[in-house]
Amino acid sequence: MGFPDWMRVLNPNIGELVEISELFSQRTSIAVGLTEEYKLNTCNLKITPHGLEKIVRITMRSGRIIDLAKNTSLLNVNDWCEVDKVRIGDYLAVPRVLPYFGEIELVKHKLILLAYMIGDGNCTSATLRFSNATDKIVEEFKSVVNMFGDAKVIQYECNQDIDYNIVNGDNFPKTRYKNGVRVLLEETDLFGKNALKKTIPEFLFTLRRENIALFLSRLFSTDGWASSVYEIYDETKKNRHKRNYNAHIEIGYSSSSERLARDLHHLLLRFGILSVLREKWVKYKDGRKLNYVVSIHGSSSVYKFLEIGIFGKEACLNKAVDVANKMRCFEDRIPKEIMLEVEELRIENGIRPKDMIKNREPNDRYRRQYSPQRNLVEFWGHLLGCQRLINLGKSDLYWDKVQKIEELGVFKTYNLKTNNKYGCVVNDFIIKET
Predict the structure, then answer these.
(1) How confident is the model at residue 118 (pLDDT cuts 50, 70, 90)?
(2) Which of 102, 122, 352, 364 could, after both became Cys, cross-link 15 (CB 3.0–4.6 A)?
(3) How confident is the model at residue 282 (pLDDT cuts 50, 70, 90)?
(4) Does the predicted TM-score (pTM) go above 0.85?
(5) Which segments of 253-386 does DSSP mark as H helices, in order?
(6) At what angle do helices 374-384 and 338-349 cross, to 10 degrees?
């Protein structure tokens, strides 16, 4: 399996997310693997240089990207598929959850401060600044700064409504002294970085589950949101699906930093939250700038997000959850190519189409041309005596659609050898050597 050095591998034992170039110095590592039952497990990984290879980038509808050489295979619903045979519109298997966290714990006030400074902080000069208009958030920010003991928050003279400076405390030198906030930002490599270059500190991936949830709740407090719409139509405005309502929910976060957005995209996956990362041009001063938006839409992912929450925006989140309770869930589906296998088994077992209906409601039909829901495929597996269908229905896989394929050029690559014959996870993709 040939990969360029910037691809990242998750170590499930400690939650660390490391680039392949760094793993090469260790020669071996632990990675997330896949079992025959389509469940995640751990596997050993051996890294060796592989020479120069042409690298292809595959971008999925969810925003996930993978850069890899053509001697690698990806998993579709039927079997493993070589990279050069993957086409736009194909569905590939990716992890639907990566439930791996570390055991390191960081004190809460430092964790909250880092989230606020990444989202709404200015760390590019010696004068540290924070901008936010929500009273509840500003009060907590002042509180966590005071907990450092040698720093305090004062209002910025030019815009006292939303801008605040972090300065040295009253009993400490005004100049030539670095307070605890400044030291923390330097230690986490955030000091001196503007909005385009901000990232989530590497050590944060190794924190405990509750620590990461706390960090994300404050990060979403800055440039995040929760929105929802629920409208009931009269009988004359029913849509083609015979629904008498219009419902929409979104939990999102926007950043100028692509790396920050991708880090957030990955951390949500640790909680089993499926999100979409997309590019969006927004107005900025007299022109436009490119932003990266991470958004959550599915009702099941919204429920899981409650473990994280959005500090200061709880009412908006609760409203989104109320709308999610009124919506039907359509996100857990398996590509319709599986229906060829299902049909062969149905005919072989002599089962009538109407017996393939799970709940037997009046409007239910056995539809061969649509992608079936996961729980329905599991039901068919039990009905037809097929363990593979049962495994697919209960799997740790999510079926993502290929949106773009492009060649990046020739780069130095590394070969990843694993003791798991069913592949391993690289950059949140399931891959296998051809």
Answers:
(1) very high
(2) 102
(3) confident
(4) yes
(5) 258-270, 299-305, 314-325, 338-349, 374-384
(6) 30
- Using DSSP, state whether 365 is helix, strand or coil: coil
Cβ pair 413, 23 in contact under 8 A: no
Q: Quickly list DSSP for 386-428.
A: -HHHHHHHT-SEEEEEEEEEEEEEEEEEEEEEES-TT-EEETT
Whole-number Å distance between alpha carbons of 86 and 72: 11
DSSP 3-state of 38: coil
Q: Which residues contact 391 (CB under 8 A, 6 or more apart)?
A: 36, 37, 38, 381
Q: Is 114 helix (H, G, I), strand (E, B) or coil?
A: helix
The pLDDT tens digits for 285-313 are 788 889 999 999 989 999 999 999 999 99
**Residue 149 is encoded by which pair of tokens?**
């003991």
- Indicate the burial class of 368 (C-beta count within 10 angstroms; 0-12, 13-18, 19 or more): middle
Evaluated on CA atoms 214, 394, 293, 195, the torsion sign reads: positive
> Closest Cα to residue 124, out of 182, 203, 174?
182
Write the DSSP string, 169-216. Answer: -TTS-SSS---HHHHHHHHTT-TT--TTT----GGGGGB-HHHHHHHH
Strand partners, 40: 34
Residue 274 vs residues 114, 181, 297, 302, 398: alpha-carbon distances, Å = 24, 33, 8, 9, 9
CA–CA separation, 356 and 383 (whole Å): 8
Cβ atoms within 10 A of the Cβ of 118, count?
A: 29
Cβ–Cβ contacts within 10 Å for residue 235, how many? Answer: 6
β-strands 429-433, 72-75: how paired?
A: antiparallel
Please tell me the distance from the alpha carbon of residue 68 to that of residue 1, in angstroms, as a whole number.
8
Q: Which two tokens stand for residue 299?
A: 């009702």
Which residues, other chains included, contact 395 with Cβ-Cβ below 8 Å and sequence gap of 6+?
A: 37, 38, 39, 96, 374
> Could you give phi then psi for residue 316, rounded to 5 degrees?
-65, -40
